[in-house]
Amino acid sequence: MATRQRRHFAHPQHLLLRTHYSTTSSHFCDICRTNVAGMVGYRCNTCDIDIHDACADYFEETVSFFAHPWHTLTLSTIPDDDTNRWSCDLCTESCPRGSFVYRCAQCGFDAHPLCTLLPQTIRSPLHPQHDLNMAPSWGTCSACHQGLNMWHYRCGFCLYKLHVVCPSGAANAGQGDTSRSHNAGAGAAAATPGSSRATRIAKFLLRTSLNIAINAATGALATPVLDVLATALDDQE
Ligand SMILES: [Zn+2]
Ligand SMILES: [Zn+2]
Ligand SMILES: [Zn+2]
Ligand SMILES: [Zn+2]
Ligand SMILES: [Zn+2]
Ligand SMILES: [Zn+2]
């Protein structure tokens, strides 16, 4: 089979080499931050950049996102030589150096690519009577009673508020869901706060009720990315 290379806007300075990663590979996709073991992707050996096939195809150079409606967000690299600690404005977890984020440089707004898949509206078994909408405000989480960062899910009627991905492991969107990944119901135990790995957000996105919302919002275009997340979480065990 011929060697295949492609250009990608996320890393325009070099051609990326199509790569079949071994099942023991310890590399991580620089877009979605889950592992690439046993999957196909694109790699720059010079810069140690890896991108899943599905992530290279799905994520676009710019996005419009409801959590920052004022400006277009552009896929950008976290500078390698920067001493600032970058974190995602939605889930508050870190954005590791060299990884990609969607950024509004003008406002300093950053979001993990995976976090741009979060639905604007969810239903939670913790507050089943109403929809929860992601909106900016302040307060404490009704599930874990810790402080909320600006963006969180809340009920417009009851003042019920939830972390985007609650650190308590509370099942924001579907306790007892039959998830796409058999590991996805395991809660947040494996993820440490500030982890550079996307385990927690990936598990959250794989819950059945979120899957349905994401597929509806993207016209099922994100399905290959969700499949990659399910495979990556399975391989982790
Ligand atoms: Zn990926
Ligand atoms: Zn490179
Ligand atoms: Zn995030
Ligand atoms: Zn902005
Ligand atoms: Zn309510
Ligand atoms: Zn919480």
Number of strands: 12
Alpha-beta content class:
alpha+beta
Let me know the largest β-sheet: 4 strands, antiparallel
Helix count equals: 4
Query: What is the CA-atom radius of gyration, in angstroms?
Result: 18 Å
Global geometry: globular
Which ranges are low-confidence, i.e. pLDDT below 50, for 5 or more consecutive residues?
Answer: 173-195
Span between termini = 32 Å
Cross-sheet strand order for the largest sheet: 1-2-3-4
Proportion of beta-strand residues: 15-25%
- Provide mean pLDDT, rounded: 85
Give a concise summary:
The protein is an alpha+beta fold.
Protein traits:
single chain, 237 residues, alpha+beta, Wheat Germ Agglutinin (Isolectin 2), domain 1, 4-stranded antiparallel sheet, 4 helices, binds zinc ion
Describe, in plain words, how this protein is organized in 3D.
By secondary structure, this protein is α+β, with helices and mostly antiparallel strands. Among the domains are: 5-58, Wheat Germ Agglutinin (Isolectin 2), domain 1; 117-130 and 165-236, no CATH class. It is 16% helix and 19% strand. It is built from four helices and twelve strands, in the order E-E-E-E-H-E-E-E-E-E-E-E-E-H-H-H. The chain has a four-stranded antiparallel beta sheet with strand order 1-2-3-4. A four-stranded antiparallel beta sheet has the order 5-6-7-8, with no helix packed on it. It is globular, with a radius of gyration of 18 Å. The relative contact order is 0.15. Bound molecules: zinc ion (6 copies). One zinc ion binds at residues 88, 90-91, 93, 111-112, 115, 201.
